[in-house]
Specification:
Elements (H helix, E strand, L loop, with lengths): L1 H11 L5 H26 L1 H21 L4 H4 L2 H18 L4 H27 L12 H6 L1 H9 L3 H17 L2 H18 L2 H28 L3 H7 L10 H14 L10 H4 L7 H29 L2 H5 L2 H13 L13 H15 L7 H8 L1
Length: 372
């Protein structure tokens, strides 16, 4: 997430072109993953290799029998971004103690606030070097996990920092992260908040809502917030940014080959991009039958994780899993592609780690409860 923010900053500050910044993101991510790859290779070589072998077999099969998949398989995304996403999942699967993972995530979430403030300063106060700049979808989604994770913390300072990130996303991000954060907050109130403090949070929520309705929107709109602009026009939920056209094209292609699909990444050829909807993307790639099996398998995996004994003992685990689900799945329903989404890869690694590692060390409190 920090690398994504830096990638967005570089062209705005005139330090690189957009293409150079994208290259920086890829190679910097690879550089940070190399030490982890070496460690995993020593611990479990087969775990490191097997997912890439499977990806290679799937890619070769599609290339041989589905010509419409060639556009994706010959692209830079298939060669760099998809392997990086796979490596993201592998790294999460091999985490031994989530105490340290969450500590690093908390540190990174706090640091992201500083980078986000610099980014907002660059976009709103400096004469930016990118022409026709309006807003950044990548910026908003890169702050999504930090904001959700800070909201989850019990310390009031972290909750305030999470709210600051929320405002920064409104200032320069897209609507998707705003909806996800609001949805998690409602879920958090209903499911994870103790009854003794529930009324306090409800009162605080109402006060913040009244503040936003009464004048915060005007303050934010001064900074040319696209999200606030759509809200003031009454198009916050109705404005689809041309996704209806993409959906129509995707459904038409699915109807042509409903059983076999068109091959992995074939939507890149037909739509000149991705389908902006996980279900439609899967159906175009693999057909309706395989898509149904994949969705059912995913639901079973999620349910089994929620039923995990560790989560029953310590409800904080369920809160974190809820965050991961919102972070990994919801953006794929309106944006991005599962083939290159680091957030979806992070979610899959997290789910597989919980489901197939019964001896995992999740939280120190859980370990103490087990010993008792």
């Amino acid at each position: 997430m920090l690398v994504v923010i830096i990638q967005q900053l570089l062209p705005l500050l005139g330090l690189s072109t957009i293409e150079q910044a994208a290259t920086f993101r890829v190679y910097s991510t690879i550089a940070t993953y190399l030490p982890a790859a070496v460690i995993i290779m020593r611990r479990n070589f087969s775990l490191l290799i097997f997912p890439f072998v499977v990806y290679g077999v799937v890619a070769l099969f599609n290339y041989a029998f589905f010509p419409d998949s060639h556009a994706f398989l010959e692209s830079r995304q298939a060669v760099t971004l998809t392997p990086i996403a796979i490596m993201t999942a592998i790294i999460v699967i091999t985490i031994r103690c989530f105490d340290y993972f969450f500590k690093v995530l908390l540190w990174a979430s706090r640091v992201s606030i500083l980078l986000a403030i610099v980014y907002i300063w660059a976009t709103k106060l400096l004469p930016v070097s990118v022409e026709s700049y309006k807003y950044s979808m990548s910026f908003g989604y890169s702050l999504l996990l930090p904001a959700l994770f800070l909201f989850r913390q019990t310390d009031i300072t972290d909750k305030i920092l999470g709210f600051v990130l929320f405002l920064l996303i409104i200032l320069d991000g897209s609507r998707g992260p705003v909806v996800v954060i609001a949805s998690y907050y409602v879920i958090h109130l209903i499911w994870f908040t103790k009854s003794s403090v529930l009324w306090k949070q409800i009162v605080a929520t109402v006060l913040v809502g009244l503040l936003a309705y009464g004048g915060l929107g005007d303050v934010l709109s001064i900074q040319s917030s696209r999200t606030v602009w759509l809200y003031q026009r009454g198009e916050f939920l109705s404005h689809n940014s041309g996704r209806d056209i993409i959906t129509t094209k995707a459904i038409a292609k699915i109807r042509e080959h409903p059983v076999t699909g068109w091959g992995i990444g074939a939507d890149r050829k037909f739509i000149k991009g991705y389908a902006h909807n996980l279900f439609l993307e899967l159906a175009i790639h693999y057909g309706i039958v395989v898509t149904a099996f994949l969705i059912i398998g995913f639901i079973i995996l999620v349910v089994s994780c929620f039923m995990n004994q560790i989560f029953i003992v310590h409800q904080g685990g369920r809160a974190m899993l809820t965050i991961m689900l919102l972070y990994g799945v919801v953006p794929l329903m309106v944006s991005n592609s599962y083939l290159i989404s680091y957030s979806f890869a992070l979610l899959m690694g997290y789910l597989l780690r919980i489901r197939y590692s019964p001896n995992m060390r999740f939280l120190s409190k859980v370990q103490l409860l087990k010993k008792k």
